[in-house]
Protein 1
Amino acid sequence: MAFGKHNLEPQIVEEETDEENTEETDVVEKIENDDEKNIENIEKSTESISIQEGVAETNEDDEEEFEEVGYDDRDMPISYQATLKQHSRLVNTIHIDPAGSRMVTGGLDHEMRLWDFNSMDDTFRSFRTIKPFEGYGIVDAKFSLTGDRILVASSCQSAKMCDRDGHTICDYSKGDPYLRDKKNTKGHTHAIMAADWHPFDGNTFITSGMDSTVRIWDVENDKSQKSIIVIKGKAAKRPAVSAVAYKNDASVIASGSDDGTIRLWNAKGPFVVPIKNKMAHEADKYITSLSFSLDGNLLLSRSWDNTLKVWDMRNFNDPLFKYENLPNVFEKTCAMFSPDNKLFMTGTSAKKGSGESGRVIAYETTTGQVLNNIDLADGSVVKLYWHKRLNQIFAGSSGGSVAALYDKERSHKGVLCCVKRHFTSKIESFVSADKKVYAPNSLPLFKEQTPYSLKEKRAQERYNYAKSKRPELPNEAKTKGSKLGDAYTQHLVQMLRKEAYGDESDPRAALMKYAKMAEENPEFVAHAYKRTQPVALFETGEYTEFEVKRHKPE
């Protein structure tokens, strides 16, 4: 996907209002996209921008100044696009380590994926998939300043610290939801909605949640937070803190809640009353993103009221720029500054079933003019990340894909390394199981004894008395190779029995010894037959006629 240079021709319409005599300028921009071959001419949609009086007046002189010192859209790395499709649902967070070698993404599919640009090919597959919180979507996942740790926050009450390979280091404590005073809790009692690292202290990070608190944590202490800020709304309401951000010099903490209020806190405390408290957006609308500029003078705020506002920290009463009609239906829709602070951008949501796609809209910081308008095909644009070292823009969408925008001349490494590394499939040889395999060498006749098997065979033959031709070992217990048993004892017992009772191997001879004794002294069964059969009758082998008929087979 290639993007050509966009020529901006702003049309200005001036209208006078009563009482305050303010001037509102409606700028309608027609963005023509001409590629190198002049094949396609795409007319972009119009954008309405309301700019306050005295901040940015646009006339012919300003247009000439814009052409001379303005930001050139060709400097944006948007010439080519690569799509990383691995998540199955909305991508909430994208972050890359400072070296630009690894990327972490997370979404509502409960998965956190790790990507390695140095080993990934043009198929763009993550090398590791983790579910840090089973059943909970990933809200934020960010590398530390050194890139050796990953802060992971989900929609449950606990945050997690992982190493750069995704292995868990520690889980931070949850709070007791039954305690009314949130200052006495040791962790979040409701879902976490945002998390961020300290700008230069690698041992400190911050979280905010639906329990109306902002908590500052020490990395080494997983038992309780270091400090806590309790947000109190009007009429004793407890608004959910949906966005939180550190100023780049770590002097201010900005929090945005669902009552439409932006609160600025002194990062050193005490966290009792905010420095500034501004009703910035509509009530009952989540503030989905807060982002400070590089110099800390500007603050971006994005909300569910479909607006993007730019605030001057030196004059926090009214917004510097206000952009309306920017659809936003997701809790993590992002707004951010570029690494060089020359422009800022945000993503828009697409209406379900409308056939439209989300857009990435870039604005110039100094003039507030629309610089670029990029359509992305895969649903709404939720998360944006621009890495300074790689000079590549990553956009997470509601369809689960991550679009990587880059330029072959201005971008470095990152996705460029992957598109040059083509995937090669390995063809593995296989044998069909339906065919018979004849291997005559596996038969016992053709087998050759290997040195190892021959050694085992000889060791076994050594214990075989017949093959080794050696006498049996004496009957010594607990001796290797000795023959245990009582053969000699049995032999002595048998010899003594023969001497006492004689050889009884022939049963007939043993009975005949008692034949003469039975005739002389009939004391066994003779008394029973003394009257009925005094003379014993024995089998002679001869049969009478009656007995022959009885025994004749039928």
Protein 2
Amino acid sequence: MRKWLIWSGVAIALLLVGLTVAGFILARRIDPFLREQTVAYLQERFASEVELESLSVSVPMRSPIRVLLDRGRGATVKLTGKGLALHFRGSREYPPLIKMSRFDVEADLADVREKPARVRLVKLHGMEITLPPAGARPKMGGAASEAEDSSGGQDKPTSVILDQVLADGAKLTILPRDPTKRPLVWDLHELKLTSAGPGVPMQYETKLTNAKPPGLVDSKGSFGPWKTTEPRETPLSGEYVFTDADLGVFKGIAGKLNSTGTFEGRLDHLIVDGETTTPDFRLSTAGNRVPLKTRFHAIVDGTNGNTLLEPVDATIGRTTFRLVGGVVRDIDETGKTITFDVNIRKGHIDDFLRLAVKGDKPFLRGDVDMKVKLEIPPGKTEIADRMRLAGTFSLARAHFTSPTVADKIDELSQRGQGAPRDSSIAEVPAVFGGTFRLADGRMDFSKLNFSVPGAAVDLKGLYTFDDEKLDFWGTLKLDARVSQTQTGWKRWALKPVDPFFARGGAGTNLRIRISGDRSSPKFGRDK
């Protein structure tokens, strides 16, 4: 009995040792098998020639026996690869399509042998994705090209399902067609992808810091399936939250911008719909804070970084207006030019003056309609100095907020109607219209019309923003005759000269000049 027990114990011990040794032998055989499968998968999935510096496979000490007894079920296999580079279609003309310093893979051994194989977790370290220019399809031969050609150029269903991928610190670069132009680069601080099933886009979550204006971006959505034959056409969609973007990095403006929105398309071409709010938007020339909100529809071209905004509906203060245009990279690569067609209908002029002119109180109120072309070329000077505007405007029910100017306007209307002492003619609304051009810190008016009851002014001139100086000249036409603009004995004394000033269908027609500064302009006859 004792011998039987001893021999039984020895037999069991030998069996366990044998199983353990067999497990280790199997683990060693798994190493080249998994390396071969990994390279084959990457080669086929990304139509690329694979460079892999090293790949090691480990199975936990308790797992070799389970590998044999449970046919791999419940046995965890871990892969660690270093120095991975995928050269798209075997080309060395561009940087690798994908490269990374290291990757770690965890999977159940039984799942690896399934079709499709399933991988529990992948961690990618130092990953860089570089998308070649659109249409870049070098014919370099080799295994990568043979694999793609055998598929007829069609994307096959994936042979591997990745349950979760972590790629913190990843970088995405999109190369332009013109090699002299700068590529577009995005740095992803955090990136997590999870599987939604075979043939279905992966779900992702990412965090990144936008370079300019600086701010934190949180985004989530769907990515893929990967387009093997044209990687930049891989589908991408989702939603984003952009917080605390500091507009102060752009010279001449300031404020904290927040934005939310959705997007869909592909890596090199996205359609974005979103909203922005900047409660403290301001220009450095004036410093007054005004609330700015926008709702936009944008088309983002990943091949050159151009963004077309068609349209932007903006609200500043109480005024809503529409912009259509975009942000386009210059040919000489000096920066990006902002161009917009701006259409304002039934706006409030004081909303814009509060933004653009110094002081707490805008010097003018009224209803404004405006059509202008806006252009802001790249440069290192303040935006206000680079801004160019050209267009037409009309201003109705206008009132000057300065009592001095308002009194002069009332007096002009009184005299123009031949009632210089009629105090009931007060708080007279004015009407403006004109054609203007703004550039280099000054506004030039090729035509400026101004009218109040009894008087009409046609002017040309300019206004400079830095010193708030104005200089206008033109004609003043009154309904009343010269003598009727006066009181007392002057009224009678001037009657003989009335015919000399009554011309052009007006009771009085005078050449005038307006000069000085905006707070206290000087009115007089132009010599």
